[in-house]
C-alpha cells in the first residue's frame, strides 16, 4: 500500500483536489439556490409543504440512478457530475433554510419593518443572519453527503477520487485493485473530515456571538 501511494502520489493529490473542489463549488452553488428558493416559499404554508416534499422525495432517489439518467442528455464528464452533486446538495440546505426562516419570531420582522427597513433589507440583514446557524447545519449535512456522491460521479467519468474506487472494483482480484479502492475510500473520508472542520470554523467566524449562545 505504501509503495502504491508513493508511486501515484501526484495522481492521488490531483484527484483529491479535484474532488474537494467539485464538492465545495457545488455546495456553494447549492446554498445560493436553496436560500433563494427558501426566501420565496417560507411565508406560504402551501409552498413550504411543496419544498419539504421535494426535498424528502429527492433524498430517496439513488444517486447512481440519477447519474445514469443524466448521461443520456448530458453525456459523460464534468457536467452530469456537477448537476447531480448540486441537485443532492440543494435538498438538505433548502429544508433547513425554510425551517430557519420560518422560526424567526414575527415580532422581530415587524420591528425591523417598523424602523423603516425594506422587505429585502430585512431579509438580508435580519432574517438570514438569524437563520444562518440552522442553514449552516444543513450545509454541513449536505457537504458530507455529496462528498460520497461525488465519488459515485466517477461512473460518468467525473473528476475526483471515485476513479480510484471504480478502477479498483473493475479489476478486483488483480494487481493493486484493493489498494486503489482503499485509496479512494480513505481519501473521501479524510476530505469529508477536513471540509466539516472548515465549515465549523466558518460557523464560528460568521455567526454573531449572541446567536451562537441562543443555539
Automatic annotation (TrEMBL):
CDD domains: TM_PBP2. The chain crosses the membrane at residues 20-42, 54-76, 82-109, 177-202. Signal peptide: none annotated. InterPro entries: ABC_transp_perm/SBD (IPR051204), MetI-like (IPR000515), MetI-like_sf (IPR035906). Residues 16-199 form the ABC transmembrane type-1 domain. The keyword Membrane applies. It is a multi-pass membrane protein. Belongs to the binding-protein-dependent transport system permease family. This is ABC transporter permease. It comes from Curtobacterium caseinilyticum.
Amino acid at each position: 500500500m505504501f509503495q502504491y501511494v508513493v508511486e501515484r502520489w501526484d495522481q492521488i493529490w490531483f484527484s483529491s483536489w479535484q474532488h474537494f473542489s467539485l464538492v465545495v463549488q457545488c455546495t456553494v452553488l447549492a446554498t445560493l439556490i436553496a436560500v433563494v428558493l427558501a426566501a420565496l416559499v417560507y411565508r406560504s404554508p402551501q409552498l413550504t409543504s411543496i419544498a419539504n416534499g421535494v426535498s424528502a422525495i429527492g433524498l430517496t432517489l439513488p444517486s447512481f440512478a440519477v447519474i445514469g439518467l443524466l448521461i443520456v442528455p448530458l453525456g459523460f464528464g464534468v457536467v452530469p457530475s456537477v448537476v447531480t452533486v448540486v441537485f443532492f446538495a440543494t435538498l438538505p440546505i433548502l429544508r433547513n433554510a425554510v425551517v430557519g426562516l420560518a422560526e424567526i419570531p414575527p415580532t422581530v420582522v415587524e420591528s425591523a419593518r417598523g424602523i423603516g427597513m425594506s422587505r429585502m433589507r430585512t431579509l438580508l440583514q435580519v432574517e438570514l443572519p438569524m437563520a444562518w446557524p440552522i442553514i449552516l447545519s444543513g450545509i454541513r449535512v449536505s457537504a458530507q453527503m455529496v462528498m460520497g456522491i461525488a465519488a459515485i460521479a466517477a461512473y460518468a467519468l467525473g473528476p475526483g477520487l471515485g476513479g480510484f474506487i471504480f478502477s479498483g472494483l473493475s479489476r478486483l482480484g488483480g494487481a493493486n485493485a484493493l489498494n486503489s479502492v482503499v485509496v479512494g475510500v480513505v481519501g473521501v473520508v479524510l476530505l469529508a473530515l477536513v471540509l466539516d472542520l472548515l465549515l465549523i470554523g466558518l460557523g464560528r467566524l460568521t455567526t454573531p456571538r449572541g446567536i451562537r449562545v441562543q443555539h
